[in-house]
Amino acid sequence: MSTPATSEFHITSLVVHAAAAQLQQLSHSINQLAGTEVHAATADGKLVVTIEGESQKQLLDQVEAINGMAGVLSSSLIYHQVDQASH
């Protein structure tokens, strides 16, 4: 008898503080990253972002990509959850 394979599903959320002058371009660039979505933005440059993926490394790679974008001043991890899914 075989054991069902399990995989992980990760979701994390960030608040990204960005230069207000680059907010629109930055939102677009973040939305282009696999598994990422900007859900809200304020006029003073704060973005609410979620990232979904199959591993913690995948999420951390996306966070690093966001932090390296022009106009990003800082980011703060707000939430991280891992679920196990059976196949």
Automatic annotation (TrEMBL):
Q: What keywords appear on the UniProt entry?
A: Chaperone, Cytoplasm
Q: Does the keyword Disulfide bond apply?
A: no
The subcellular localization recorded is: Cytoplasm
Q: Name one Pfam family in it.
A: NapD
* Subunit structure and binding partners: Interacts with the cytoplasmic NapA precursor.
Q: What role does it play?
A: Chaperone for NapA, the catalytic subunit of the periplasmic nitrate reductase. It binds directly and specifically to the twin-arginine signal peptide of NapA, preventing premature interaction with the Tat translocase and premature export.
UniProt cross-references to PANTHER family, sorted A to Z: CHAPERONE NAPD (PTHR38603:SF1)
Record-stated family: Belongs to the NapD family.
Q: What is this protein called?
A: Chaperone NapD
| Source organism per UniProt | Shewanella avicenniae
What is the organism lineage in this UniProt record?
Bacteria, Pseudomonadati, Pseudomonadota, Gammaproteobacteria, Alteromonadales
What is this protein's gene name?
Answer: napD
